[in-house]
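Subject: Lipoprotein signal peptidase structure
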Amino acid sequence: MKLSKRDKIIYLITMFVVLGGDQFTKHLISSSMQLGQSHEIIDGLFYFTYAQNTGVAWGMFAGHLALFILVALIAAVVMIIYFRKTKKEEVLTRFGLVLVFAGLLGNLIDRVFFGYVRDFIDVIIFNYNFPIFNIADMAVVIGVALIIIEIIFEEYIHGKN
């Protein structure tokens, strides 16, 4: 797979905007709020609540930092290999991989430098308080969704019969 210069620039800009935004917002929150402190943004719906996650999703498997770092590094290599094997028309998959990769790097940076992931986005919908997350987490979820959408609708998107 050969990327055009334009595509390389777009993917790199996307990755650095997500990664930069993630690290900037995490720094802003962690330097201005105490652990556990919460600021209401939209009453009963949206808060900034500073949390430190030593596990993975929903705090599962807390305390296995070295394992998380190893898994992230292996996943990064696999994503790079998979990205290189994508076809030019697989735009959603490519953007999805870029978003997942940027999210992975954002949380990996936290794990390596702090020993935990800094989370702060706190959402309550229908009285369910979702686990607190960050921009890197959003990038991973959106990226995976784009990949799934392209897989499910591949024939429609690419006009295959």
